[in-house]
Automatic annotation (TrEMBL):
Belongs to the major facilitator superfamily. Sugar transporter (TC 2.A.1.1) family. This is Major facilitator superfamily (MFS) profile domain-containing protein. Its main location: membrane. It comes from Penicillium argentinense. The lineage of its organism: Eukaryota, Fungi, Dikarya, Ascomycota, Pezizomycotina. GO terms for cellular component: membrane. It is found in: Membrane. GO terms for molecular function: carbohydrate:proton symporter activity. Keywords: Membrane, Transmembrane, Transmembrane helix, Transport. InterPro entries: MFS_dom, MFS_sugar_transport-like, MFS_Sugar_Transporters, MFS_trans_sf, Sugar/inositol_transpt.
């Protein structure tokens, strides 16, 4: 998809909305990479680690490292639930305003941390913000953009996380030579920047038209849609899109109850969403993102900070390419390609780690495979997970579905992140790079699942996706299936049946 094709679907309001929401996700990348990279800093290790008399060095114990990189997902889950409820009841914009206010408080706790308990509490509390963000941002993105560029826009969720990683890793590279705690306090100070921008600009973008229709606020939905489509579509085309949104909601049989996620055709949709969320984390991305810096440092092959910058830049470049082309190539092909690259890198890394001893050349190869693994993740499962999990659910169940999918994502991420130190280090499993055998096998399973179970929905509106599921079309035929218009008799029957939605 060319830049000109993308540009014709955007006006000033939609471009501002998408840009601002993309910026909001950078803070996730700041947190994710800042904690990963600062763990390898001497000052951070001295402040929060333990002194080892035998080596005459400070080190962060594996037990605390596991807690620091896993307990934050408690905050993640809490934030997800809070954010989802606020977003569902009060709107997407108010949720983003609330989470930004909260983020300024947790940034202060992080920057002023002095003890293990405080830095651990700061990370847990800051991830409440991250959870709120995950609950609202991909949903809002999917609801405001035209179908032909939905994959491009929603995919910016992962792209922005990667961009945040590039920025914070570059800053960490620069501050790593500073003596004392300012080396890690300065990167953490960036946690103030993004929430401040969102607080200032959030009210300049419109609320989601689909959310407004769900609240029965039709006039406001019309105004919002006109702002998002003005200059892109004619007045008649805008009116036709609004009518389509209203019709899609009218004929949707779901009433918005949580239990409907697991009933009828929605069980299939929920199962796909849950499985995708599972595989995104189970293939081991936390190994590269959370422990990559400290693991590479243990290899003694490349400057840790240079490596994190390199992998972050690779992630941005590959993710950007995926965003540009997933609406053309399709979600399934990129999912399979990404998981294949991940599996190949993981198995190669694990194989190199079977040498005894692991010499310098093999250690260099292991580090290179981690970079290739990051590229595979950025190609498919990084950006496209957020696209697919937001375009498959029924409109009235989207918040419920996002909540369930994200909780699964968080639970798996917690399990992987918590277990990695015990899988890696001597004194426990001692697998080192051989953990690639575990995660690589899961990546192969992800390929198989995608081939048989994941639909391609690019180019179709959310309402059209809903009809494909309810009309029993095989998920492997979604991409090329032409949806016939409803005839008057069928439309009247569906509208009559749907009148009980509000009861």
């Amino acid at each position: 998809m060319s830049v000109s094709v993308i540009a014709k679907h955007f006006n000033r309001t939609l471009a501002l909305s998408c840009t601002l929401i993309a910026i909001s996700q950078i803070n996730y990348g700041f947190d994710n990479q800042a904690f990963s990279t600062t763990q390898s800093m001497t000052a951070f290790t001295k402040q929060f680690g333990d002194y080892d008399a035998e080596t005459d060095e400070y080190a962060i114990p594996a037990s605390f490292l596991s807690l620091l990189n896993s307990l934050n997902y408690i905050g993640f889950a809490v934030g997800l639930m809070i954010g989802s409820l606020i977003s569902q009841k009060y709107g997407r914009r108010r949720c983003m305003f609330a989470m930004s206010c909260y983020a300024l408080v947790t940034a202060t706790i992080t920057v002023t941390s002095q003890t293990k308990a405080q830095i651990l509490a700061a990370r847990i509390l800051n991830y409440i913000y991250v959870g709120m963000e995950l609950s609202v941002v991909p949903v809002y993105q999917s609801e405001i953009v035209p179908a032909p560029v939905r994959g491009f826009v929603v995919g910016t969720y992962q792209l922005s996380i990667n961009m945040g990683g590039v920025i914070i890793n570059g800053i960490c590279r620069g501050t790593s030579t500073i003596e004392g705690n300012n080396s890690w306090r300065i990167p953490f100070g960036l946690f103030y920047a993004i929430p401040s921008i969102i607080l200032c600009l959030i009210w300049f973008i419109p609320e989601s038209p689909r959310w407004l229709l769900l609240q029965g606020r039709t006039d406001e939905a019309e105004k919002s849609l006109k702002r998002l489509r003005h200059g892109i579509l004619t007045d008649d085309a805008i009116a036709a899109e609004l009518a389509s949104l209203k019709l899609g909601l009218a004929i949707e049989p779901e009433k918005g109850a949580f239990t409907e996620l697991f009933q009828g055709v929605n069980l299939k949709r929920t199962s796909i969403v849950i499985a995708i969320s599972f595989f995104q984390q189970a293939t081991g991305q936390a190994f590269a993102s959370q422990y990559g810096a400290i693991f590479v440092k243990s290899l003694h092959t490349i400057n840790t900070y240079n490596f994190t910058i390199i992998t972050s830049c690779i992630g941005v470049a590959v993710c950007l390419w995926s965003n540009f082309f997933n609406d053309k190539i399709g979600r399934r092909k990129l999912f399979i390609a990404g998981a294949s690259v991940q599996a190949a890198a993981l198995f190669t890394m694990a194989g190199l780690g079977t040498a005894n001893p692991v010499i310098h050349g093999e250690s260099t190869g292991i580090a290179a495979m981690m970079a290739i693994f990051a590229a595979g993740f950025g190609l498919g499962w990084g950006p496209l997970t957020y696209v697919v999990v937001t375009e498959l659910p029924a409109l009235s169940l989207r918040d419920h579905s996002q909540r369930v999918a994200s909780l699964v994502n968080i639970a798996v991420n917690f399990a992987v992140t918590f277990s990695i130190p015990y899988l890696l280090y001597d004194g426990y499993a001692g697998l080192h790079s051989r953990v690639g055998f575990i995660f690589g096998s899961i990546a192969v399973a992800a390929c198989i699942f995608t081939f048989f179970c994941v639909p391609d929905c690019q180019g179709k509106s959310l309402e059209e996706v809903d009809r494909l599921f309810h009309e029993g079309i095989s998920v492997r035929k979604f991409k090329g299936f032409e949806i016939p218009p409803l005839d008057e008799a069928e439309l009247g029957e569906k509208e009559t049946r749907s009148e009980t939605r509000a009861v």
